[in-house]
Amino acid sequence: MSSIDQFASRPIAAGAGGHPKGLYYLAFTEAWERFSYYGMTALLVLYMVNELLLPGHVENIVGFAGFRATVESLFGTMSTQALASQIFGLYAGFVYLTPLFGGWIADRWIGQRSAVVIGALCMSGGHLAMAFEQSFLLALVLLVVGSGFLKGNISAQVGALYPRDEEALRTRGFAIFSVAINVGAVTGPLLTGLLAKVYGWHYGFGIAAIFMLAGLATYLVGYRHLPARVERRTFERDRLTAADWRVILALAAVMLISIFQSVSYYQLANVLPVWIQTQVALELGSFTIPVPWYQSIDPLFSILGVPLLFWIWRKQAERRREPGDLAKIGIGAWLAASSNLILVAAILIADGAPVHPVWPMLYCAGMGIAFLYYWPTLLALVSRTAPASVNATLMGVAFTTLFVANNLIGWIGGFYEQMSPARFWGLHAAIGATGGMLVLLFGGVLTRALAGGAQQPLRASAQTIEVER
Q1: 441 versus 396: which is more confidently predicted?
Q2: Do 160 and 5 touch, CB atoms closer than 8 A?
Q3: pLDDT tens-digit profile of 281-337?
Q4: What is the distance between the alpha carbons of residues 184 and 188, in angstroms, rounded to a whole number?
Q5: SS3 for 365?
Q6: Is there a contact between 357 and 284 (Cβ–Cβ < 8 Å)?
Q7: DSSP string, 212-269
Q8: This model's pTM is above 0.85
Q9: How many CA atoms lie within 13 A of 84 on its CB side?
């Protein structure tokens, strides 16, 4: 019997709520890791624009002259803000691409447990390197590589903790895991933003490194409770039928449409902080709101929105009016467009004066709900309808749309200084609305094509609203 078969055949160790003990080690590991990731990401663009890429600092970055020359050979000469936007887009994009390779390496050679340790070590090193100007590019590389090893493999271990006949318990386990993700996403920007404001950028990056190390320590303490290698379902490699190919092409079309929603959404982590620090009245009496705190609002509303949306969808289902998957993806696009229009309205109302801080709060809250409508629905749709023999592959392809979207937001963000703020956010409203219009135009055709394929068993990771960004 293989090591994974032996692990899967063990009775579930009774932890809290009847879940395996390993679940809680994985959840706390992920909470620490997401704290460090989102905390660092909330500072990244502001740090580059306000300090790192300015004269007197940019010269200290090892290898940056060659890196900048390469980027500008592709995109043209860039201002400080445009270059920061492009760097952010490349970094955020590759964070979603490398897990494909990290999962492949884990499956073929080293196993998920070793892959997570390697990933946590790389990310810890990356956060530590971020605290020094000289090692900025090295820090980004380590963070991207570390995310590739950790991101998908730790999620795969959650499912592998449960026997095959414990689907309901596995689904609740993923729900607990998702809560840990979002707790880290909410609290990370709050603490790193406060430390960066009071003590300086490097203290914010330093606390991110400490929490990543705490995540690694948590994982190592629970090491013996975790499977070394995740069992993968194998399917007979029959030739795909014509119906299968129609489903695959329809899913590819839906994924392409979702890129519009993602571009409209993900700009909140790139240009939004730059706009807030120059255009929003952040003073509340003697207290100034740290700009990174706005990055906590979106995941907070993604948490609060889950029970609300479940209630709305249940009531709609009772009247047989619950939107289908394509309609929900379209609603997410319209909500993203509307959220961008909130900023346009705020700018026009202010008429040159500083914008009230509640407006970007509403924008971030709207984006949190928009995300819930389109992204988890897309993952569930792919998991349920993709042919079994290419199901995991197409789930990976779905995440590559975020690689494309983040690179696009980096490129589009480079035009921010060449446009008025109202036109810039209006552009993103139009991009989101384009996704909504495409769903209106082609949703019926795509829904029929997807209905023609065999329905696959819905995996636990898709049964739960997964709100990780």
Answers
A1: 441
A2: no
A3: 999 888 999 999 999 999 999 889 988 998 999 999 999 889 999 999 999 999 999
A4: 6
A5: helix
A6: yes
A7: HHHHHHHHHHTGGGS-SS--------PPPPHHHHHHHHHHHHHHHHHHHHHHHHHGGG
A8: yes
A9: 26
Query: Do the Cβ atoms of 416 and 82 come closer than 8 Å?
Result: yes
Give residue 460's pLDDT. Answer: 42
Q: List the structure tokens of 209.
A: 């490194």
Q: How far is CA 49 from CA 185, 195, 274, 291, 413, in A?
A: 23, 18, 8, 13, 13
Residue 1 has pLDDT above 90, yes or no: no
User: Tokens standing for 292?
Assistant: 């990174």
Q: Is the pLDDT of residue 49 over 80?
A: yes
Q: Quick check: 229 pLDDT over 60?
A: yes
| CA–CA separation, 185 and 300 (whole Å) | 8
Query: Helix 167-199 to helix 21-47 angle, to the nearest 10 degrees?
Result: 30
Distance in angstroms (rounded) separating the CA atoms of residues 168 and 23 = 15
The answer to whether the beta carbons of residues 260 and 438 sit under 8 Å apart is yes
Which amino acid, one-letter code, is at 413? Answer: G
Q: What is the DSSP letter of 135?
A: G
Instruction: Map residue 280 onto helix, strand or coil.
Output: strand
Mean pLDDT of 438-466: 72
Chain centroid offset of residue 392 CA: 18
Residues 6+ apart with CB under 8 A from 268: 295, 298, 363, 364, 367
Secondary structure of 24-72 in the HEC alphabet? HHHHHHHHHHHHHHHHHHHHHHHHHHHHHCCCCCHHHCCCHHHHHHHHH
Q: Which long-range contacts (CB under 8 A, 24 or more apart) does 71-76 make?
A: 75/411, 75/414
127, 143 Cβ separation under 8 angstroms: yes
Name the amino acid, one letter, at 467: V
